[in-house]
């Protein structure tokens, strides 16, 4: 798997500090795209994101049909942005799911915490405007 560098992790941290949400793109089995904001996003380790599912409908249907996802992180201070692609797995039981559910419930007890989306990073692309836009970094 692909591991994020320290500067990439900093883009993620700044995104979550300032913007509180990350756009996640999925596609249906028929190739229909969907983008939805994700607020419960954790960089679990250098190669794995966890996303808590509270209200996913189309996104969850898409993940069941096609586990490929893309996440977009933007640092509003430096204007640097990254596109992170990965393979998703849906978990509704087990220790990882219970850990994520507790995180969600501790922060906002009213949230349903229906499932955990585990994303293993496969590629990272630069999307900052300029000469490096679109460059594959990992």
Automatic annotation (TrEMBL):
Source species of the chain: Methanoplanus limicola DSM 2279
Entries under PANTHER family matching the protein: 5'-PHOSPHATE OXIDASE PUTATIVE DOMAIN-CONTAINING PROTEIN-RELATED
SUPFAM superfamilies: FMN-binding split barrel
Taxonomy, superkingdom: Archaea
Residue spans crossing the bilayer: none
Pfam family, one: PNPOx_N
Stated name of the protein: Pyridoxamine 5'-phosphate oxidase-related FMN-binding protein
Boundaries of every Pyridoxamine 5'-phosphate oxidase N-terminal domain copy: 9-126
Gene3D superfamilies, per database record: Electron Transport, Fmn-binding Protein, Chain A (2.30.110.10)
Lineage: Archaea, Methanobacteriati, Methanobacteriota, Stenosarchaea group, Methanomicrobia
